[in-house]
Amino acid sequence: MLKFGTAGIPINAKNTESALEYLKEIKLDAMELEFVRGVNLKAEKAETLAKNLKITLSAHAPYYINLNAKEPEKIESSIKRIVDSAKIISIFNKKNSENKNVVFHSGFYLKQDKDLVYEKIKTNIQKILKIMDENKINAVLRPETTGKISQFGSVDELIQLSTEIDIMPCIDFSHVYARSLGKINDYDSFSNILSKLENHLGKKGIKDMHIHISGIDFGNGGEKKHFPILNSEFNYMAVLKALKDFECSGTVICESPRLEYDAVILKKNYEEL
């Protein structure tokens, strides 16, 4: 089964604490902590929230990350932001092992050879994993499929990474659609992605998923901005049907501007398939 939730605090909640109660009330099952500009949830507060947590939590590391930056200091700060995010989610993980996923955008190609970029990003993720291991930080790193053509993070790149080091991908189907300039937008295309995940990562590839869905707009360079799902040409129903037919498990996070409203639509449509 899939759990459904929001990217960040829902529209009708004031803070993280009230969000966790509210989402349960409207029968959603998950929330992704959005550390957009920095990891703003203190460890002490996370400890308190974890005590009565009734939904599944994940975290999205800050957006200012580029593991392929030319400047060493930018790479170090990127590594720190991901590690700091993992530290917080690991507090929730102690209470429930489903609270484990840390999503992040890996970086940009910067007009460099893609194979070299791949190796540099892989090396830097390995550094993060080493820090986590040394500090007993229990979390799963999930680089996300990205929506812009200039960004590292195609489905194939992330699947390959996941076969070589101890990570799992976050599949943002809306980003995949935008990155393909609208070409990947039907049941067969989405099913092909799920088949790849299963073929290369085993059953875990489809039974332990972390997914993003929203409406989205794109231009020549890929993703432009997120839309409400009903105002976008992105075929979210085909994604839901593919996920159902493959009997996928995990979490679906809605990044639509309508947050919980669209998350409820996604969950309702999925359950009715």
Automatic annotation (TrEMBL):
Organism domain of life: Archaea
GO BP term, example: base-excision repair
Protein keywords: Hydrolase
Domain Xylose isomerase-like TIM barrel: 21-258
Gene Ontology MF term list: deoxyribonuclease IV (phage-T4-induced) activity; DNA binding; DNA-(apurinic or apyrimidinic site) endonuclease activity; phosphoric diester hydrolase activity; zinc ion binding
Enzyme class name: hydrolase
InterPro entries (UniProt xref): AP_endonuc_2, Xyl_isomerase-like_sf, Xyl_isomerase-like_TIM-brl
EC number: 3.1.21.2
Protein's name in the database: Deoxyribonuclease-4
